[in-house]
CopG family transcriptional regulator
Amino acid sequence: MRTSVNLPAETLAAFDEVWEAEGFDSRSRAVREAVREYVERHDRLERVTGDVVAAIAFDYEHATVIGELHALQHEYQDVIRTTAHAHEGEWCLETVFCRGDAAEIRELLYRLRDFDAVGRANVMFLERVDGE
């Protein structure tokens, strides 16, 4: 099936360098592999259930989104235990340490990813609290 995707020129150039260095025979093959890995990562994330301890790390453009991020973190204060914050020029790196229901922590992650000014947001589940 054919589809089209709009990407910034520099992102596409970097992607082309990677797939060529990895020896894929075409951009299409590399895109199929990247999409498959994305779906698999999402499936693994969705399978985590119950009470968990997790760390969500994300980077963002400070001036653009700080107020909205603080408001979001207040919405999830029942699962957020503490945060760590570092500045890197106009960008910030933040880690939010959580404990609570996996579904609520996933929801927080997805909402963080929805901000245009957030570059990346990744979660690491540190331990299963419910014994599974």
